[in-house]
Amino acid sequence: MFRAFTPADLKSALLELGVAPGDVVMVHSAFDSFLGFQGGPVDAIRTLQEVVGARGTLMMPTIPFRGTAVEYALGDPVFDARQTVSRMGLITEVFRRSPGVLRSSHPTHSVAVWGNRADAIIAGHEHAETPCGRRTPYARLLEYDGRILLAGVPANTMTFCYFVAEELEPRLELPVLTRETYPMRWRGSDGSVQVTNVRLFSLHLEHDLNPLVRELQRV
Predict the structure, then answer these.
(1) Which of 28, 62, 199, 211 to pair with 77, CA 20 to 30 A apart?
(2) Closest CA to 60 of 13, 14, 96
(3) Exposure string (b/e) for 123-142, b if CB count within 10 Å is 16 or more?
(4) Residue 30's CB: how many other CB atoms inside 10 A?
(5) What is the pTM of this model?
(6) Which of 6, 62, 63, 66 is nearest to 34 (CA)?
(7) Which ranges constitute the DSSP H helices of 18-99?
């Protein structure tokens, strides 16, 4: 009641943050934190689309599990980009079902994308042998000089950091990825089930990004 805001207010806030038409934006969100928002998830998504415009691109991670990727893999799932539910929050699930949105078929770390560069961003992700490396939408976020928006979520939801971790792995003492590969199944657009052998994030990987947040705030 006392902190009510409309989609127009949300648009103004995004513009004030520096999000501009033509931008590529990776959005992490928790609709439960949109206290006072006078609209639903669809209104939030439409507002984001209005801000980046027809020349821009919206990205949202649509990872199909909570917990660790290794635990998920041991359940022998079959990932289907059209049917498998996103476990990354209500906005991501509504977004992946929205008109014009494409979703990569990577079996553990899929991304839903809308906008000008959607096809290029998701291309080939299903064949990537690691979740967030050079052949993935997370790398293309960097290539397109994208922005990351945290809407009601802490910094440890920032999946782009896993791209950074994969890049740094050869220089780190602790493993970022498992040594073994996991045969992960996914369903293609023709209905056939295919397999990609993927190294997943190590169970020993530290996920606390607070030191990074403190450094960013200092800078």
Answers:
(1) 28
(2) 96
(3) eebbebebbbbebbbbbbbe
(4) 17
(5) 0.93
(6) 6
(7) 41-52, 69-74, 90-96
Select from 210, 208, 203 the least CA-distant residue to 174.
203
Return the residue matching tokens 């998504």.
45
Residue 1: predicted pLDDT: 63
How far apart CA 152 and CA 166 sit, in angstroms, is: 26
From the CA atom positions of the chain, what is the Rg in Å?
17
> What gap in Å lies between CA 46 and CA 106, rounded to an integer?
26
Task: Compute the distance between CA of residue 212 and CA of residue 115 in angstroms, rounded to an integer.
Answer: 30
Alpha helices, H only, 53-182: 69-74, 90-96, 118-122, 137-143, 160-168
Per-residue pLDDT of the chain (219 residues; tens, 9 = 90+): 667 999 999 999 999 999 999 999 999 999 998 888 999 999 999 999 999 999 999 999 999 999 999 999 999 999 999 999 999 999 999 999 999 999 999 999 999 999 999 999 999 999 999 999 999 999 999 999 999 999 999 888 899 999 999 999 989 888 899 999 999 999 999 999 999 999 999 988 777 777 777 887 777
217 CB contacts (<8 Å, ≥6 apart)? none
